[in-house]
Amino acid sequence: MTISSGSQVLIVAFRVDASLTIGTGHVMRCLTLADALRERGAECHFLCREHPGHLIEAIRSRGFQVDTLPMSPESMAPEEVSPLAHAAWLGASWQEDARQSRAILEGLAPDWLVVDHYALDRRWEETVLPPGCRLLVIDDLADREHGCDVLLDQNLGRQAEDYVGLVSEHCTRLIGPHYALLRPEFARLRETSLDRRATPRLKQLLITMGGIDKDNATGAVLDALRQFQLPQDCRISVVMGGNAPWLAQVKDQAAMMPWPTEVAVNVTDMAERMARADLAIGAAGSTSWERCCLGLPTLVVVLAENQWNGAKALSATGAAILVGEVADISTRLPPVLRKSASPASLAMLDQATSAVTDGRGSDHVVEAMVLLTQDGANDG
């Protein structure tokens, strides 16, 4: 089904950032949604601030137009104190960001605006949203009000009731990993990945701590693995982003590991790597849903405060084993690994993990946008 606004191509704008503090996950899931929308005929544009560690060129390399919002000392001065916990992530006051974004959106005249940013709330949305434009907000926190038509929270353990009072009663709430924004290759590889786990054995270990890993959780994991006797024929694969500040040090560590250890940078085949892996040690962020889709048993590490709820929910359902924070890796990872590396433990983790999501969340989200777009066209 093609998504369109009357006889015109549907225009969708995304307001999202990446940085050394924010990480890369918000941009990556918006790119996944943009790809799915483009497959339906929509035209997608991005608005991104030029934070250190931004992914603006990566977005452009995917064929999307990006309008940049500059970093400047003047833009950091707040015009009023923001009550939002992540206000500093914006790199500007919300009022300045709203003025800059509105100027771009007025010329673009989008049919939909997608906002994925912990530093933005109803005040920004009502200031920026063009007339006749629908709003989809992607959130994980349920800690602020939104004036949106659609609210997407893909986290396990989240309930629609968590947004009562934060969105209008008419807002469509898409809640849980059923709506997780995964690239289509994850769903395509799901059956193959699950089939190869019928007889689990730890031969391939995947370490993935996000694109930035500012606290060097990867290095802590490599150090801790030396305290555990992995199978002699085990191979280790480390995946990092090109902007990761500890990349060079991790490469040096990898070269000294007792087992063959590769460090892959800016990979484009993550689904294939996960499908080949027997166990992952990974961040408790949005890549959790990728691992779940492929039934990949995982030991999760919390890299940011907002990851705790998701990590605990995964642990409670048996879909992952919680190691703790970065500071816990050296003491807790070896004993956790001893308990989870047996074939029986891997099989139990695989079964619970694969039940979380089938990997088709992007299709479900686009379908919801299609229906609302069509309803608006019919009302017109």
UniProtKB/TrEMBL annotation:
Short name of any one Pfam family annotated for the protein: Glyco_tran_28_C
InterPro entries assigned: Glyco_trans_28_C (IPR007235), PseG (IPR020023)
The keyword Hydrolase belongs to this UniProt entry's keyword annotation: yes
Keywords: Hydrolase
Residue numbers annotated as active site: H26
Enzymatic class: hydrolase
Residue span, Glycosyl transferase family 28 C-terminal domain: 220-345
Hydrolase keyword on record: yes
EC number: 3.6.1.57
Record GO terms (molecular function): hexosyltransferase activity; hydrolase activity
Positions that bind substrate: R183, E290
UniProt-recorded name of the protein: UDP-2,4-diacetamido-2,4, 6-trideoxy-beta-L-altropyranose hydrolase
Lineage of origin: Bacteria, Pseudomonadati, Pseudomonadota, Gammaproteobacteria, Oceanospirillales
